[in-house]
Design a protein that fits this description.
13 helices, 46% helix, 414 residues, 2-enoyl-CoA Hydratase, Chain A, domain 1, single chain, disordered C terminus, alpha/beta, OB fold (Dihydrolipoamide Acetyltransferase, E2P)
Length: 414
């Protein structure tokens, strides 16, 4: 007997894992496959792939919604209906299988296309339920009306949506022992589950990694961090680390967005918002570009995986990220503006306006020596200046500074 569990979104990585489970059971001659499933939903195409593999399997497949308190919504409902044996733990629920498009909204984008997609998914649910001898009407309503069912409601339906309720895997095996199961092709198999050895299958490290980054919140964070990394690299060329890290995060984010439904307009709004925030650092807009960028970033973040059951970015992640990014850019913009307004601290510009003292007299058309900022400079003046006079530097011409008298009364330094 092969036992595996999956907790997460249904996408191509989970379909690959499920295929490995079935292949292992079929090649080792296992009598049964038990999949402990808890999922908020996922991609319909990946679900169809998993259902097709389940139908073609030589080994009977049990989908067990467990432990208590979990759910199998949307795509998970279709997998439950399609299983050879459907089991739920106490305190679980299934249903809410309304289809969504890859853009993250209702499938189709308008009423007509959404209805077509819903009817197609409803027909798919009905044919699975009818073939398995389950309640086709309720299966269709889970799609068209987003109905959900507790384990008691699913079992009490006529005909039921599930086969029985069990507390754990041991309970499942006890209730299956001696039970005759009808396969999808109509063949009948009597199960003998007493004393079966368990072959526990887990996802590979590669699959665990890919499944983790395919989570919408992780993908969103990778997208924002990657964008920030590239911005920092462009702002400070040669830093290298921000550019490398940013590029890696963006590539991982783009891979994740191939696995989960995303909204292209949301991605563009996020890019536009970050672009406006970058411009805020270079264009004196008095905060207009920064505020506009923050709004675009917020709207794009909300839209990127909107209203897909279990496959959307939480507001608890969006709001802090947007505030952090916008606040960071606006803060940097304010610092940059202050830096531009400050007087130069080094170089030729820093000499202009500094006080000085004449070390020698300076005649008109000639030069003399002055003391300024701990240094001795050659100085010229348009008016005669006596030694000891307080001066102010007005310009720098090569290695010669131009000065004027700072004390109006002409008093000399004693």
């Amino acid at each position: 007997m092969v036992v595996a569990q999956y907790d997460g979104i249904i996408h191509p990585v989970s379909a690959e894992f499920f295929d490995e489970i079935i292949e292992r059971a079929d090649t080792t001659g296992a009598r049964l496959v038990i999949l402990l499933l808890r999922t908020p939903g996922g991609l319909l195409e990946s679900t169809r792939t998993m259902v097709s593999r389940m139908i073609a399997a030589k080994t009977p497949v049990v989908v067990f919604i467990a432990p208590s308190g979990t759910r199998a919504a949307s795509a998970g409902f279709l997998l439950t209906v399609a299983a050879d044996v459907a089991v739920m733990a106490p305190g679980t629920h299934i249903g809410a299988a309304t289809p969504v498009s890859a853009t993250g909204g209702e499938a189709g984008g308008d009423a007509t296309m959404a209805k077509k997609a819903a009817e197609d998914a409803a027909a798919y649910a009905r044919t699975l339920a009818q073939t398995r001898g389950r309640n086709a009407t309720l299966a269709a309503e889970a799609v068209t009306e987003s109905r959900a069912f507790t384990e008691r409601e699913a079992l009490a339906a006529d005909p039921p949506l599930i086969d029985f309720v069990a507390t754990d895997v041991d309970d499942v095996l006890r209730q299956l022992d001696g039970r005759t199961v009808t396969r999808f092709d109509g063949s009948r198999v009597t199960l003998a589950t007493a004393g079966l050895e368990r072959d526990v299958v887990e996802m590979s490290r590669r699959q665990q990694f890919l499944s983790a980054i395919a989570h919408p919140q992780i993908a969103y964070l990778l997208l924002t961090l990657g964008s920030l990394g590239l911005v920092v690299e462009l702002w400070n060329p040669g830093a290298i680390l921000p550019g490398v890290a940013g590029g890696l995060c963006l590539l991982l984010a783009f891979f994740a967005f191939q696995l989960i439904p995303v909204n292209a307009a949301g991605l563009l709004l996020i890019a536009f918002g970050i672009g406006l925030l970058v411009l805020e650092l270079n264009v004196p807009s008095f905060g207009a570009l920064g505020i506009g960028g923050a709004i675009a970033l917020l709207i794009g973040s909300v839209m990127i995986t909107r209203e897909v059951p279990g496959v959307r970015v939480s507001y608890a992640v969006i709001v802090p990220v947007v505030l952090l990014i916008a606040g960071g850019f606006l803060g940097l913009g304010r610092l940059a503006l202050k830096a531009h307004q400050q007087r130069a601290a080094t170089g030729v510009e820093a000499m202009v306006g500094l006080p000085a003292i004449a070390l020698t007299s300076i005649d008109e058309g000639a030069t003399g020596q002055i003391h300024a900022r701990g240094e001795i400079w050659r100085a010229a003046s348009e008016t005669p200046i006596a030694a000891g006079r307080r001066l102010t530097i007005t310009a720098v011409d090569g290695l010669t500074v131009r000065v004027v008298a700072a004390d109006a009364d002409g008093a000399e330094e004693s």
